[in-house]
């Protein structure tokens, strides 16, 4: 992680829906190669902030850049420079492995010639060359996860947004998935990840915890545990989120 | 209250349930613990008389799920995994609808749902589709309880729910159990197993193990070492390269290591890691949790 190179900068982000303030003056930076955990109770405003960072929604006010691009004026450039994956939305089950790679390559606007080369390299890297014509639906969950993550990186984005990537996944596959995350971060990718598994919060370089539209805490897991005098991140989370007003 | 014998169900060539047998006692809080694809929902749908098994028998409160399905439906409450109330009816309309369908009134059974329903009552005129996730969940639970069922079946009620709301939800379940309701609940969160009286650990249509959470952990005989250092990722790689290590998995701030030979001692592993220049090392023998046991059993079920 390189603290001198912020790839996401958020200054005084405010997002209102009518009279409701979903994001109330958020301030943070995310660095190159960092694994940044974005935690919060349901209804705390995580999804709203994430949609803004992905260029899908405009802030009410504040200054934000993602990968050096402005979130008000350069949303198309942002979309080209980020990857996105969630448990709910990843691959098309009724397309084959190769078809999914080709499809996403097209969506991300990779030129045809490069797309073929990328497809070849990816299949080789994942050792899936002989499986290329298998339907996604027929693959074990661990492979699907790995493939979905690799495809989110296909267009070589600087930042990858992972929205609850491990929900409902078995404990071994869940840990394998974190191996991929570490690997990508080591290659300089910035990882922005949400999760409800508090043990996964421990694997992040820094963790932000949102409560009622604000960032209630942001630091390394070790520092947060010290600050809240808690043995694990679950204890930290419970202390902060217990008295939330919004949402539930 | 629930009796399942040799239940199997396939979808084309996928075995969703593979010869499942277990029973749940009256008043018990029983958990089906397992990831997506374990067969939890299929099992619940069969018990709820919404799906017919390929083979095997299942009884709810002594009634057969096939021949006596109509009687079962009066006795059970079901909260499916996907929100399935009427989004375009208000909170109170939904509750009244379910009471009427079961030939009762909200007033008659209000006592049972009171603690849960008061939390959403301020929003009773709001459309169900406009509720937050946590409120939807409370309404769904109220609707599943409004006919005072003997057995309550909940399919992954806490999936995608934050840690605080999950804790609250389990407190609600404990409270319902104290009122004599038998509860069958499924979850992919291994840490929730400890909140059940007994659990079945499930994977790929099979039950890996059934017992109380405490006994499941006690019966795990493998040695388990907890390790931490300054560099988590390098630590995992180094541990996996160690010839005496069978598995090394991250568990929060520690890595849990299962040695190949039972006699690999903490000091020995520490020496190996010091050789790899790890700093602030901690290595000690630790007690397994449900998740450790599950991962151990998974390896045998592949």
TrEMBL record, chain A:
Signal peptide segment: none
Keywords noted in UniProt: ATP-binding, Nucleotide-binding
Recorded coiled-coil stretches: none
Top-level taxon of origin: Bacteria
Molecular function via GO: ATP binding; ATP hydrolysis activity
Segments forming domain ABC transporter: 8-237
Entries under Gene3D superfamilies matching the protein: P-loop containing nucleotide triphosphate hydrolases (3.40.50.300)
PANTHER family, A to Z: ABC TRANSPORTER G FAMILY MEMBER 20 ISOFORM X1 (PTHR43038:SF3), ATP-BINDING CASSETTE, SUB-FAMILY H, MEMBER 1 (PTHR43038)
Protein name: ABC transporter ATP-binding protein
TrEMBL record, chain B:
PROSITE patterns given in the database record: ABC_TRANSPORTER_1, ABC_TRANSPORTER_2
Transmembrane feature ranges: none
GO molecular function, one term: ATP binding
All copies of domain ABC transporter, residue ranges: 2-229
Keyword list, A-Z: ATP-binding, Nucleotide-binding
Nucleotide-binding among keywords: yes
SUPFAM superfamilies, per database record: P-loop containing nucleoside triphosphate hydrolases
Protein transport keyword on record: no
SMART domains on file: AAA (SM00382)
Record Pfam families: ABC_tran
Record-given protein name: ABC transporter ATP-binding protein
The species this protein was found in: Gaoshiqia sediminis
């Amino acid at each position: 992680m390189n603290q001198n190179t912020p790839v996401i900068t958020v200054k005084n982000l405010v997002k209102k829906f009518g009279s409701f303030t979903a994001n109330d003056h958020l301030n943070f930076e995310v660095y190159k190669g960092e694994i940044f955990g974005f935690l919060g109770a349901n209804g705390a405003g995580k999804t709203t902030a994430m949609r803004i960072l992905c260029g899908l929604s405009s802030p009410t006010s504040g200054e934000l850049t993602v990968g050096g691009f402005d979130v008000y004026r350069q949303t198309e450039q942002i979309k080209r420079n980020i990857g996105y994956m969630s448990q709910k939305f990843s691959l098309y089950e009724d397309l084959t492995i190769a078809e999914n790679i080709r499809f996403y390559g097209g969506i991300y606007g990779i030129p045809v010639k490069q797309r073929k080369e990328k497809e070849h390299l990816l299949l080789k890297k994942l050792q899936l060359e002989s499986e290329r014509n298998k339907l996604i639906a027929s693959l074990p969950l661990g492979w699907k996860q790995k493939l979905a993550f690799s495809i989110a990186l296909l267009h070589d984005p600087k930042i990858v947004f992972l929205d609850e990537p491990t929900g409902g996944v078995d404990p071994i596959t869940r840990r394998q998935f974190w191996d991929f995350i570490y690997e990508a971060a080591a290659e300089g990718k910035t990882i922005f990840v949400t999760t409800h598994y508090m043990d996964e919060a421990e694997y992040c370089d820094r963790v932000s915890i949102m409560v009622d539209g604000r960032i209630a805490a942001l630091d390394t897991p070790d520092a947060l545990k010290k600050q809240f005098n808690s043995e694990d991140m679950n204890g930290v989370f419970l202390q902060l989120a217990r008295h939330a007003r919004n949402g539930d | 209250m629930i009796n399942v014998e040799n239940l199997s169900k396939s979808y084309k060539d996928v075995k969703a349930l593979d010869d499942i047998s277990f029973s749940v006692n009256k008043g018990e809080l029983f958990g089906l613990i397992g990831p997506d694809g374990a067969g939890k929902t299929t099992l619940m749908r069969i018990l709820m008389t919404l799906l017919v098994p390929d083979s095997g028998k299942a009884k709810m409160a002594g009634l057969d799920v096939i021949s006596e399905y109509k009687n079962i439906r009066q006795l059970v409450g079901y909260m499916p995994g996907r929100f399935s109330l009427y989004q375009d009816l208000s909170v109170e309309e939904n509750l009244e609808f379910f009471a009427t369908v079961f030939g009762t009134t909200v007033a008659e059974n209000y006592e049972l749902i009171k603690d849960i329903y008061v939390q959403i009552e301020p929003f009773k005129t709001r459309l169900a589709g406009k509720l937050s996730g946590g409120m939807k969940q409370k309404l769904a639970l109220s609707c599943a309880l409004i006919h005072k069922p003997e057995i309550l079946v909940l399919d992954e009620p806490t999936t995608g729910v934050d840690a605080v709301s999950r804790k609250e939800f389990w407190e609600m379940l404990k409270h319902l159990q104290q009122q004599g309701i038998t509860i069958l609940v499924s979850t992919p969160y291994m840490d929730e197993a400890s909140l059940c009286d007994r659990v079945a650990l499930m994977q790929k249509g099979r039950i890996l193990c059934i017992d109380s959470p405490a006994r499941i952990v006690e019966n795990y005989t493998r040695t388990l070492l907890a390790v931490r250092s300054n560099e988590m990722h390098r630590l995992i790689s180094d541990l996996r390269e160690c010839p005496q290590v069978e598995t090394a998995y991250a568990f929060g701030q520690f890595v849990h290591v299962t040695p190949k030979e039972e006699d690999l001692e903490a000091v020995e592993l520490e020496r190996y890691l010091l050789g790899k220049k790890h700093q602030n090392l901690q290595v000690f023998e630790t007690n397994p949790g449900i998740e450790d046991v599950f991962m151990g059993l998974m390896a045998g079920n592949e």
